[in-house]
Amino acid sequence: MVRELSQSTDIIYPDSDGQPMADNTKQFRWIVVIKENLELLFANNPDVFVAGDLLWYPVEGNNRLRRAPDAMVVFGRPKGDRGSYKQWEEDNIAPQVVFEILSPGNRFSEMLAKQDFYNRYGVDEYYIYDPDQVDLVGMQRQEGQLTRIEEMQDWVSPRLGIRFQLGEGTLTIFTPTGDPFLGFVELDRRRREAEERANLAEEERQQERQRANLAEEERQRERQRANLAEEERQRERQRANLAEQRADAAEAQLQAMEQRLRELGLDSGDN
């Protein structure tokens, strides 16, 4: 006789469903690009959790009811590592946005099952991209149901603020500031270029500071030369004043001697 499991029985919620993250390099690349760029987009918001290929269990007590979206975004939950997303341990907040990247191995019935799951358990926005066909399908919750978005060209996600643009041969996703989602190689190249620009700007600032210091030193030397010149002018004025004083004293002495001679009747004009 098989005993029925009670709610109190410990149930294991595996962290893996045994399925590969991707079937080919193109699918894997798109999963990584979307997940990592979403991480960057919300890097400064501690209450936005972004994950890729993480098992989501919406109902406690049922470890068979689960899905692993290629990428998902949860608003209102803190960042951090998780083995799986157990919704009842996350204030019962369901992922609001999910992405699925198709591969040739995806079956139509599987995609219908995913759509039904996301619709049933509270996803607000659901995006499906087929990189081989460059085909993007989007769904948005309206009146309690995920409803297909009629036009995806230049569609802006209400939750994420990102914009989708289908071009010749590929999909481009833009951040709210207009920057495109980029792969690791391009992100690293731009990071290195930004570092080089920052280093060059810092070198220029240092050179500018050196030029400013040299100019200040030259101004100080000019002030010192001006001070020395002013001191020399003051000494020259003092010498001139002293010479004038001496001349005045000599003149006064001469006049006194002449007066004395006149008093003695020895005026220098007499024979």
TrEMBL record:
Source species, domain of life:
Bacteria
Which is a Pfam family this sequence falls into? Uma2
Q: Where is the composition biased (Basic and acidic residues)?
A: 196-249
Nuclease as UniProt keyword: yes
PANTHER family registered for this protein in UniProt:
SLL0995 PROTEIN, SLR1095 PROTEIN
What is this protein called in UniProt?
A: Uma2 family endonuclease
Q: Where is the Putative restriction endonuclease domain?
A: 42-163
| UniProt source species | Phormidium yuhuli AB48
Instruction: Identify the SUPFAM superfamilies for this entry.
Output: Restriction endonuclease-like (SSF52980)
Cite the entry's keywords alphabetically: Endonuclease, Hydrolase, Nuclease
Q: Where are the transmembrane segments?
A: none
Ranges where the record places region Disordered: 196-271
- Cite the GO molecular-function annotations of the record: endonuclease activity
